[in-house]
Task: structure prediction
Amino acid sequence: MIKNLHLLITAGGTREYIDPVRFISNASNGKMGFALADAAAKAGHKVTLITTIKNSKFKSVYVETAEQMFAAVRKYFPKCDCLIMAAAVADYTPAKKSKLKIKKSDKNLTFRLKPTADILKWAGKNKKKNQIVAGFALEDKNLRKNAEEKLKDKKLDMIIANTPSTIGAEKAAVQIKQKNKNWVTLQNADKSLIAKKIVAFIK
Ligand code: CTP
Result:
């Protein structure tokens, strides 16, 4: 196995603020990203972790929003050999963030959301010849078909497909496709074991 690569790994769900104290997020607990960081370090790689969830185990770059995560990836991506986007990045963010805490009233409240930048797609488009870009695909149905479309559309080297039940869970069952290779199934197992196998694919 090749050692001493520099892996850039993202973990956790982003927080998209409505006002100073409230945000839209998702059920990600960062487990897969942390497990990947751990497995990569154990395999002898250098790891830079960009995360929305604090942990003491890894030297990390902390971010909250999709916009901040994008800025951090843009900063660290040029120096890495491989990016693994394990973070659950929000696809939408409030079009306007209230500067003050929103007061309650008895009327309905409507929020307008605007799309965020697709960080993975940016990385696929801007990667250099020797850089590897890997992403995840969370699919309710047509798992392989939809994931393969993401692999092509985002110009990825590898896609790890799983179902929404994996988010926030201890274990994962995933299907992996590398560009120009066949699908590989990894049976339901602890995320640490799945992560170890994913890292072994990085060459
Ligand atoms: N991702 C990203 N930037 C976003 C949204 C997602 O980099 N704004 C990354 C995720 O980290 C993941 C991959 O894109 O590695 C796929 O995320 P997923 O939610 O499965 O797909 P989307 O591209 O968001 O499309 P959809 O939600 O419509 O399935």
The two ends are 7 Å apart (CA to CA).
